[in-house]
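Customer ticket, subject: "Can you confirm the structure for GntR family transcriptional regulator?"

Message body: Hello, I'm evaluating your service for our small team and ran a test protein. I'd like someone to confirm that this is what the system normally returns, since I don't have a reference to compare against.
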Amino acid sequence: MSRLLKAYDRSRVPLYIQVASVLRTRIQSGQWSAGEKISTLEELEREFEVARVTVRQAVDILREEGLLQARQGLGTFVSKKTQDRHWVKLATSWNTLIESLKDNVPRRLAIDEGVAPPVLGDSDGDLASSYVKLRSVQYRNEDPYSVVNLLLAREVFDLSPVRFKNAAALVTIDAMDEITLSEAHQTLTIGSADPEIADLLKISIGAPTVEAHCVVIDDGGIAIYVGDIIYRSESIKLQMDLLGTKPQRDKKARNAHKAVDLARRKSGKA
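Agent reply: Thanks for trying us out. I re-ran your input and got the following:
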């Protein structure tokens, strides 16, 4: 068995998705430039050591994404205007997180009350008396890119139910003078789409995803926001400041105390 076939066997992701991922990388990295004719199905079949149907499925995925175009009798070409599908730049500070969410309008799937409380880790604060569950799908240009499962403290939700139903919860929390935050942190993991997530995000079952777990704690030590967000992997770009630049603290006067790194403690209001 070749090294390539052994690599396929180590992954639970379907073969055609693995092949599509490699081809997508070639386009997005510029290895295949805009307007360039790509390898034929036969050439790709030999290169990847897979069946012709697997290669065809992989190419079809990229055609649906707008990255490839088939020209009858000529072959398959990289689209001249390839769409940047890295829609979301994952935030590493509170300011950038809020800015990235300001224009976000969630499409609510459900709002449930009387739900079970979240399971909290050692650094996640204490449980609120009760929670409201908000579930939504986030879109860009009619394309779904994330599914949000959020448990929001009931007393926080009751401060502005209409706003929480129609806007991103973190943006709503950030704008509230009634709430002072002490800590917020976010953890990222790589996963794969189960049948429900695949249907909501319009991706294949088993396709790679990026899963973010975000916890926001108020000044009373209560976990008021516990969210799990599942992103399409190709919609995500993560850029980190490796020099650890100090967070900006001049956002706006009344919310200046909130402009801090997600992993650092936030100061109280004056």
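A couple of notes from the result: The mean pLDDT is 83. Strands lie at 68-71, 75-78, 88-90, 107-113, 131-140, 143-153, 181-192, 208-218, 223-232, 236-238. Feel free to reply with more questions.
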